[in-house]
Input
Amino acid sequence: MFSDPHNVQSLISVLTAGTPYSFVATERAADHSTYRYTDSGTGVDIVQKLAHQYGKRNRFTYRFDMSDIIAVPLDPSLNQKRTTSVYVVWDVDPIGLPPLLYNVGNGIAGFCASVAGADPGYARLLAGET
Output
């Protein structure tokens, strides 16, 4: 399990111009953990879930959920909640992890990073590029 509080800067810093957040463990079990950051002043709620399953296939999961409260564009006197989620799942043969699998995480990090001033891969994907 990750330490408590769990300081996360990677994915969150992309969303918040480099601001690190401290996540408090809200649930812990042998096969999963949940970490949460809540800012009651802005309505931001960020949850990270890490889990693993062992069986015919070994599955390792990272889930990132974020929500906040924004003013309705056509009626600023009203608020509404907006949410987003990102999942990463490693589905692995139980015989063992090939060395190449460890590089998959670096590939995902590269996809999320900006290279030579270009938009990060995830931003281009969210803009509809394939």
About this structure: Residues 40 and 68 are 10 Å apart (CA to CA). The mean pLDDT is 79. Strands lie at 6-8, 21-28, 32-39, 44-53, 58-72, 75-92.
